[in-house]
Amino acid sequence: MKDRKVTKGQGKEPRSGKPQNIEFKVKQDQELMKFLIEQLPHKNRNNIKTMLKKKQVLVNGAAVSQFNHLLKSGNVVSLSRKPGPSAPKMNGIVVVHEDKDLIIVNKNAGLLTIATDKEKRQTVYSILSDYVKAQDSKNKIYIVHRLDRETSGLMMFAKSKEMKDLLQESWKQTIAERSYLALIDGQLNPPEGTHKSYLFESKVFIVYSTQDPERGQEAITHYSTLKSNDNYSLLKVNLETGRKNQIRVHMKDLEHPIVGDKKYGSTTNPIGRLGLHAWVLAFRHPVSGKMLRFETSIPGSFLKLF
Fold first, then answer.
1. Contact assessment for residue 37 and residue 45, using Cβ atoms and an 8 Å cutoff
2. What's the confidence (pLDDT) of residue 119?
3. Does domain 7-79 have CATH number 3.10.290.10?
4. Tell me: domain 179-278, CATH 3.30.2350.10, correct?
5. Cα(140)–Cα(110) distance, rounded to whole angstroms?
6. Which of 65, 135, 169, 269 is positioned for an S-S bond with 260, CB 3.0–4.6 A?
7. Domain 93-169 has CATH 3.30.2350.10
8. Cα–Cα distance between 170 and 302 in angstroms, integer?
9. What's the pLDDT score for residue 93?
10. What is the dihedral of CA 5, 7, 13, 15, to 10 degrees?
11. In angstroms, what CA-CA distances link 305 with 13, 57, 233, 297?
């Protein structure tokens, strides 16, 4: 039997009739979707998205579901004939990436990161702890960073204390992009810019902003407007520093608070939740050295206002 021809000479397929993977060697840096469209001209974008969803696309042996995953020259992309194992369903969170060192999840608004003295309901930490212990009772999970309860989006957890410490100590060097979506009241003028102040927390856990460097910690927020109308604007926000409630306080400073944020000055709540979402998380894996990038969908409730 003759070998089956593969696209551009990059892919190779075994001659055996048994279900096996088809492999393609990446020759230049590019996004995964663009690469797959070039290699699989007989499949459309929806076909490819289905393969990604079913965990049939592997990069260097690890299943990838993000269509805009950044490939590097030398990576090996494999196409599995069989769907990968489905991640268990967990109320309030979805696992978007997992390896021996890390777990990346997308959490719903309304879910605490970890229990507090006043709030001991189910949390992201408790859900993930049960998840890893179901695989091995000795497994543990460690918080690398937190999101406010009413903020949705991407979070990173470590599977060992050593990995947690390594990530926290090298956070600025490890993180390539951490972008948020903020839905605010009104329109900013100018529509993009940078806001800097110093933040400090009161005894009743409210964060205040000042221009006095002696009173608080430096906080720098970069923002740009993605969509706007007479009543609301959708911003892309990048943090140069990661202070508690930083985006919420800085939007209050700019007199355009985040919708639904009664604590920091908003009087509107058109979406029934806080208008803040951790949208993009990109970082260099501290062990493998690979650049990983994860991007969630824009919440539908945010878009419906435009």
1. yes
2. 61
3. yes
4. yes
5. 24
6. 269
7. yes
8. 33
9. 93
10. 0
11. 48, 35, 9, 16
pLDDT at 172: 85
Sketch the domain layout of the chain as residue ranges.
7-79, 93-169, 179-278
CB 143 within 8 A of CB 114: yes
What are 154's two structure tokens? 């991407």
Whose tokens are 């529509």? That residue is 191
Q: Which residues pair with 88 in a beta bridge?
A: none
pLDDT at 54: 85
- As a whole number of angstroms, the distance between CA 38 and CA 8 comes to 9
Give 50-55 contacts, CB < 8 A, sequence gap 24+. 51/79, 54/83, 54/84, 55/80, 55/83, 55/84, 55/85, 55/86
Q: What are the CA-CA distances from residue 70 to residues 105, 148, 157, 170, 198 (Å)?
A: 19, 29, 21, 22, 35
pTM: 0.72
Two domains, one topology: 93-169 and 179-278: yes
